Amino acid sequence: MRNLKSITLISTGHWLAANLPLVILVGLTLNGLAVTVAGAFKDADGPSLLLGLSPFQLATVLAAVALIARGAQHLPRSAWAETFAVILALVPSSAVSWGALALYAAYLAFRTRDVQRIGALLFTGLAATSLWSAVAMNWLATPITSFEALMVANLMSFIVPDVSWSGNVVGPTGGFKLILLPACASADLVPKAILALAALLALFGGALDRRFLKLAGITAVLLVLGNWLRLAGMAISAEHYALIHGPVGANLFDLFQTVLIVVAAYFLIDEAEDPGHA
Questions:
Q1: Cα separation of 92 and 107, whole Å?
Q2: pLDDT tens digits for range 6-27
Q3: Cα–Cα distance between 40 and 38 in angstroms, integer?
Q4: Which of 108, 109, 169, 214 is most buried when burial is the number of CB atoms within 10 A of its CB?
Q5: Quick one: pLDDT band at residue 3, thresholds 50, 70, 90?
Q6: pTM of the complete model
Q7: What is d(CA 144, CA 167) in angstroms, rounded to the nearest whole number?
């Protein structure tokens, strides 16, 4: 029994040594996502099934890991790059973790080829879209949330007779008001969705061609409209907000996002396998 444990530990040690770059990539990703998961548990209504994580982020991570693991060679090793990434991973900041992931994944993409390069580039894209959410969206919060709140107000006007809007605050005049935060904005969702679509396409052998750009645009429009309708429903009343923002509404919106991206990827992959399809 003791020998079996020793063999298992040795095998695990060999695997970790051979796959340390992939372990670092996944570790930096988990460190970056930890803040989101922790915040989901602090929500008064409890976490959603995905623990507050975006299905687009999960799809990108799974595709990136699968592509790297599919490669015939181990990822290149570099003591200084690995040490630098691990040190930054110890910093208690999601933004620092995403920055470290972007740099380390870009370095690996430069040193690899074929599917492993695509996997590393997906990790780079994941870090870039996460930095957009964590940093850039906060810098641009006022114009983005104000514009989207105006769009939500316009949608609400079809079902609510009198709607008021001021900056990022929207709701029935004299009634409940919704404060639109950067994390709720469609501008936060779309980059992650496009990256996830590219990830699924790369995983199943599709091409980033004109058809991808066309379907990515359609997907983005549907996602934006779906999110604005969701926000409009939340802004009607406190009861609507509790239902749509709570676990039930959050899980349904996650399902909508998942179905949207899977269907879009299916059409792209199906067309790639059938070149004669119009």
A1: 23
A2: 445 454 555 555 678 899 999 9
A3: 5
A4: 108
A5: low
A6: 0.86
A7: 10
